[in-house]
Inverse folding.
């Protein structure tokens, strides 16, 4: 289920019981996550849920509102922390969440060492009190992003490695971690591992119904895989199932990808991306069309090439014209 569907359901019926059922299906145990989404979308549901939330949860929601407005500061975090640490209602999970918020603000202020301490403290606390929860997942993604931002890719890779698929992390968290891990591994020339990670990212993004993420991860997989297409190769599901950790001195297995894996993922991505050709900045369409040309499967774009009137992105239109050179594309 896509979390945004909660807002759509509320707009249609304002049925709080139905919203609670949807919340439970997402595996969330408090109203805070739902209230944050409602706040982001400007929905009245946020005000309704405030009545059902604790003082600490409301303090965090106030902080989220300030962050959305671009007005959050360390003093605001300290005020929320005071509420979360109140002995009468202490909330260890939200305390960890707020230390993460402090780390993000310190990073923005370029206080990198204190940001490192806050983000590490937050992830450790959240792991101890709510491992694989929404808050813990966010802390892991933020911690990895911090390492990437200060040019520590191997540290980021280690954090992504801590997000084990068997530990109950959200599919979206797994997808984001595997996609970014694939990029890092590719930069270090570890092609086979990059292929497996991008393949897993695509699969988990589909499971959590995050189409944009699935297209991005799928495109990364295809881009890496094209030079290694081999009709004798094992299918990717089999390669993923049989994969084992590699020692530092052990040579990497030569990459080999079955063409059906490449074509299957590329076809899926094109089908989803071309359902709507509008928008003046469609980097996804341009990237996929170039990948199709490299894979010699421009036919995947056949139906899209018949819809020039729907295209707004000039660069994408030029690419389509270069391939088709029809009068319709010329006019467009």
């Amino acid at each position: 289920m896509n979390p945004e569907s909660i807002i759509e359901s509320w707009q249609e019926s304002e049925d709080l019981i139905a919203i609670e059922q949807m919340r439970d299906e997402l595996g969330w145990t408090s109203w805070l996550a739902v209230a944050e989404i409602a706040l982001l979308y400007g929905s009245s549901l946020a005000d309704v849920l405030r009545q059902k939330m604790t003082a600490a949860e409301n303090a965090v929601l106030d902080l989220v509102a300030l962050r959305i407005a671009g007005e959050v500061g360390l003093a605001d975090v300290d005020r929320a922390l005071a509420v979360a640490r109140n002995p009468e209602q202490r909330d260890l999970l939200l305390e960890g969440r707020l230390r993460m918020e402090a780390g993000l603000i310190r990073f923005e202020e370029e206080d990198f060492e204190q940001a490192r301490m806050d983000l590490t403290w937050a992830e450790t606390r959240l792991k101890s009190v709510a491992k694989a929860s929404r808050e813990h997942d966010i802390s892991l993604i933020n911690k990895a992003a911090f390492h990437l931002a200060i040019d520590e890719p191997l540290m980021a890779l280690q954090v992504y490695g801590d997000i084990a698929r068997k530990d109950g992390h959200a599919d979206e968290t797994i997808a984001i971690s595997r996609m970014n891990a694939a990029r890092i591994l590719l930069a270090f020339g570890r092609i086979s591992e990059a292929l497996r990670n991008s393949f897993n990212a695509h699969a988990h993004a589909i499971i959590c119904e995050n189409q944009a993420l699935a297209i991005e991860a799928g495109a990364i997989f295809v881009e890496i895989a094209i030079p290694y297409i081999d009709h004798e190769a094992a299918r990717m599901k089999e390669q993923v199932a049989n994969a084992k950790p590699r020692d530092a001195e052990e040579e990497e297995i030569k990459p080999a990808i079955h063409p059906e894996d490449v074509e299957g993922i590329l076809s899926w991505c094109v089908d989803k991306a071309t359902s709507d050709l509008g928008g003046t900045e469609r980097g996804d369409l341009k990237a996929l069309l170039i990948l199709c040309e490299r894979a010699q499967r421009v036919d995947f774009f056949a139906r899209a090439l018949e819809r020039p009137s729907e295209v707004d992105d000039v660069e994408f239109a030029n690419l389509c014209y270069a391939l088709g050179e029809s009068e319709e594309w010329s006019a467009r």
User: Anything to note?
Assistant: DSSP finds 18 helices and no strands in the chain.
